[in-house]
Amino acid sequence: MTAEATPSLVEKAEKTDGPLETGPSVRGPRARTRTAYLRYVAGKVGGAAVSLFAVLVTSFFLFRLIPGDPVKHMTGGRQVSAEQLATYRREFGLDLPLWQQFTEYCGKALTGDLGTSYQFNAPVIDKITEALPNTLLLTGTAFVLYTALGVFLGTRAAWRHGGVGDRLNTGLALTLYSIPSFWLGLLLIIVFAVGIGPIPGLFPTGGMESGGEEGFAYVLDVAHHLILPVITLVAVEYGQTLLVTRSALLDEMGSDYLTTARAKGLRDDLVRRRHAVPNAMLPTVTLIFVNLGRTVAGVILVETVFSWPGLGGLFYQALSVPDLPLVQGLFFIFAAAVIVMNTLADLIYPLLDPRVGR
Length: 358
Known about the structure:
Layout: H1 9-15, H2 29-62, H3 70-74, H4 82-91, H5 98-110, H6 124-159, H7 164-177, H8 181-195, H9 215-252, H10 256-263, H11 268-279, H12 282-297, H13 300-305, H14 311-319, H15 324-352
Helix pairs in contact: 2-5, 2-15, 6-7, 6-9, 6-12, 6-15, 7-9, 8-9, 9-12, 10-11, 12-15, 14-15
């Protein structure tokens, strides 16, 4: 190419009416990646907001299909006049048209007011705050144990897939995962709390404490009551984490980068821990965050079977009335916890795998 055919830098600058940009573009790869991630975050947060509103609407209309009159339940079966019933309905806003009840419910919910419980005559948010620590103690302890157990056994089973250990682990996980949690809880109560045959009753049949204990003795008492429900949750839930981790790791087993790592002389244990497991964690991360959201919701049946004073037991108690504000508030909190944890998992994905969010 001749010099005459190639415009000079000065001529290019004159044609563009400005100085020539000889450095990297302001819209380079890093800027485009940042913009794509922000768009990804906005989409996920917007989707979560829409989901929360859908839950708010569902929680209002769904539980009004439950048979039963909460006002009559509040009277405790006593004979009351129609005027008294009308007074109760007017006090709790049940005499208003359904659309007006819904708009008031949504308006208050946006300010954090979930209404007043019919049966406790107390703010719903106060009842939730009171029971939440008990639920977090139970389900949080179980979450840590079954997540660690599931990931550890899942990686071991996948790395030695086809062996005796893999078959035993997978078979036991599938069996326990298919058992209803309430049935397993009742079985543990019969065997280890009530006692059967030569096995004495070693644990309490229910509740969170025996009462009358203080200090370290109180901690031991709560831990004693915690053992059976935690065992129930761990036995039922760890299998899911094991199976997801095993499946994800098996998909990575034949990858070229693992072959290259072995060819470099890395020990098999290092190849698994440093290369295979981190790249197989995306499905497990999703499951972990979903289960983390469920720690707020608790496990309704397990808490009911063991008479554990948490959110799950409170939800079951509210359903029996039905205590509409309390049921609606608990349902919203349960769903919101899962939605928020799912959204956090989506936002963390790009940090684990940069290809996500582009």
